[in-house]
Each structure stands twice: as structure tokens, then as C-alpha cells.
Write a structure and sequence with these properties.
Elements lengths: L2 H19 L6 H13 L19 H16 L3 H4 L5
Length: 87
């Protein structure tokens, strides 16, 4: 590879990295965190659907786990099952 080709390759890689770093789109992990916050804010007894807008783009399997966690928190499970207060 000559010097010009190397410079172009490094420049293109740098531009790609910069574009990825400056993207206005949140990462999947950031979207999941936003979804967790939104689901925790739902009132007790809320239904899983429709999803909060903050959960758009979160995989179904991940959303189901997030929502199940909220239901368990709302009902006190598994704490109630282990401290003798379960019905």
C-alpha cells in the first residue's frame, strides 16, 4: 500500500468512528435504561401493552423481562415468599 492509500484508509476509518460516536441515536443499552425508567413509572397493576414510548426499539424478550421485574416489585415477590408473609 502506498502512502496515499494508507492515508485515505485511515481517514475513512476515522470518519466512520466519528460518525458513530456523534450519532444522535441512543445505543440499545441506553434505550433499555430509558424503558426500565418508563416501566417503573407505570402505576401498579398496569398492563404490559401498550408499551411506553420509551420502550420503542427494545426487543420483545427484553421488554418482557423488564415488565416482569416491575410486576414482581409491585407484588413484593420473591421477598414475600421468603419472609413468611406470602398468602
Amino acid at each position: 500500500m502506498n502512502r496515499t492509500s494508507t492515508t485515505l484508509a485511515v481517514g475513512a476509518a476515522g470518519i466512520a468512528l466519528l460518525a458513530a460516536a456523534c450519532s444522535s441515536e441512543p445505543s440499545y443499552s441506553q434505550r433499555a435504561e430509558q424503558c426500565i425508567t418508563a416501566v417503573k413509572a407505570l402505576p401498579k397493576g398496569a398492563q404490559a401493552e401498550p408499551r411506553p414510548k420509551a420502550c420503542a426499539g427494545v426487543k420483545d424478550e427484553d421488554y418482557n423481562v423488564i415488565f416482569a421485574s416491575k410486576v414482581m416489585d409491585d407484588t413484593g415477590w420473591p421477598d414475600a415468599a421468603t419472609d413468611g408473609t406470602a398468602p
